[in-house]
């Protein structure tokens, strides 16, 4: 159930896994622009260092920290937890963004066993392990009978998995992530823990390496037409993440119906001349109050 939102004006403590590139980086940037204090994680030390330095250069005085770690490695949990508590003190929002679609979009029997295992470990085990430590941290923070702290996972709904072009390990693990959100929310309720909300976050089609990996030129052209930039998606999602309340919700950049309408409109406008296309998009944006289709 999607709930009404009231955006917090206070600086929040934010954790974004997989935050060195793509949507994770764009989310971290938007949080920093709101004045929040942010920790990002990533597996590649060079990408992580570049991300932190770029954000510091763009947003002088921002409080951004980077941790090189693998969300699927249980041996790194204690160090990651200690770093978060030391740097942020309090975590208000935790976004489990780290994920992979695997190296190839191919039938299961054509995939390497190591690639299958890495996809499932990063997506499913990673989200589960990160939700575990996020819950542990938040349980030890000042609490009330309403959720003050919120965890966000990026799983697949059944329709989302049905329409995904990704391989079986990716779809299966993402369905599992949604199950983690559902059952963790139930466990918290059964244990009488009222101060933590568990939410699903659906960014839709975002122009990232994960989406475009191992695709044909024709598919890339199609995705480039209908997918959105990480920056555009992050601007809308961050406001909703900061505003989140309640025990659970499903926060979407765009509904499934909206995605279909957007794709249809973009494909239709592609057949129209560029000046007219820009004019139609401008009028459409005005009618929506600058909301994307």
Number of helices: 11
Task: Assign the CATH class of the largest domain.
Answer: Alpha Beta
Q: Output the radius of gyration.
A: 19 Å
Q: State the strand order across the main sheet.
A: 3-2-1-4-5-6-7
Say how many strands there are: 7
Which strand-content bin applies to the residues? 5-15%
- Low-pLDDT runs: 1-6, 287-293
Please summarize the sheet with the most strands: 7 strands, parallel
Q: Name the helix and strand elements from N-terminus to C-terminus, one letter apiece.
A: EHEHEHEHEHHEHHHEHH
The SS-based structural class is alpha/beta
Q: What is the total number of structural domains?
A: 2
Anisotropy-based shape: globular
Calculate the terminal CA-CA distance, rounded to whole Å: 21 Å
- The mean pLDDT is 86
CATH architecture assignment of the largest domain:
3-Layer(aba) Sandwich
Q: State the helicity in percent bands.
A: 40-55%
- Spell out the CATH superfamily of the largest domain: NAD(P)-binding Rossmann-like Domain
According to CATH, what is the topology of the largest domain?
Rossmann fold
Please, could you describe this protein's structure?
The protein folds into 2 domains: 13-217 and 229-253, Rossmann fold (3-Layer(aba) Sandwich), CATH 3.40.50; 258-293. Helices cover 52% and strands 13% of the residues. The chain has helices at residues 22-33, 45-58, 77-88, 113-139, 158-163, 168-190, 209-212, 217-226, 230-243, 256-270, 274-287, and strands at 13-16, 37-42, 63-68, 93-96, 149-153, 196-202, 248-252. The protein has a 7-stranded parallel β-sheet with strand order 3-2-1-4-5-6-7, with helices on both faces. Residues 1-6 and 287-293 have low confidence and may be disordered.
């Amino acid at each position: 159930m999607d709930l009404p939102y009231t955006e917090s004006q206070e600086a929040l403590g934010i954790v974004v896994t997989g935050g060195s590139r793509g949507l994770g980086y764009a989310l971290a940037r938007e949080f920093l622009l709101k004045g929040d204090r942010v920790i990002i994680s990533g597996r590649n030390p060079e990408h992580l260092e570049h991300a932190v330095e770029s954000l510091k250069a763009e947003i002088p005085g921002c409080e951004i920290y980077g941790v090189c770690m693998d969300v699927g490695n249980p041996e790194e949990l204690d160090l990651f937890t200690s770093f978060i508590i030391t740097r942020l003190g309090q975590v208000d929002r935790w976004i489990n963004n780290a994920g992979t679609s695997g190296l190839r979009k191919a039938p299961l029997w054509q995939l390497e066993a190591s690639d299958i295992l890495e996809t499932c470990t990063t997506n499913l085990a990673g989200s589960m392990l990160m939700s575990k430590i996020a819950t542990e941290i938040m349980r030890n923070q000042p609490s009330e009978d309403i959720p003050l702290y919120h965890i966000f996972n990026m799983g697949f709904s059944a329709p989302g998995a049905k329409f995904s072009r990704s391989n079986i390990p990716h779809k299966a693990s993402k369905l599992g992530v949604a199950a983690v959100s559902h059952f963790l929310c139930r466990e918290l309720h059964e244990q009488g823990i009222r101060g933590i909300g568990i939410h699903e976050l659906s960014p839709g089609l975002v122009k990232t390496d994960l989406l475009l990996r191992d695709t044909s030129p024709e598919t890339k052209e199609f995705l480039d037409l209908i997918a959105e930039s990480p920056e555009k998606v992050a601007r809308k999602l961050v406001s909703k993440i900061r505003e989140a309340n309640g025990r659970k919700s499903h926060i979407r950049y765009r509904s499934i119906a909206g995605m279909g309408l957007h794709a249809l409109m973009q494909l239709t406008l592609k057949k129209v001349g560029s000046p007219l296309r820009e004019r139609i998009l401008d009028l459409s944006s005005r009618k929506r109050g600058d909301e994307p289709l």
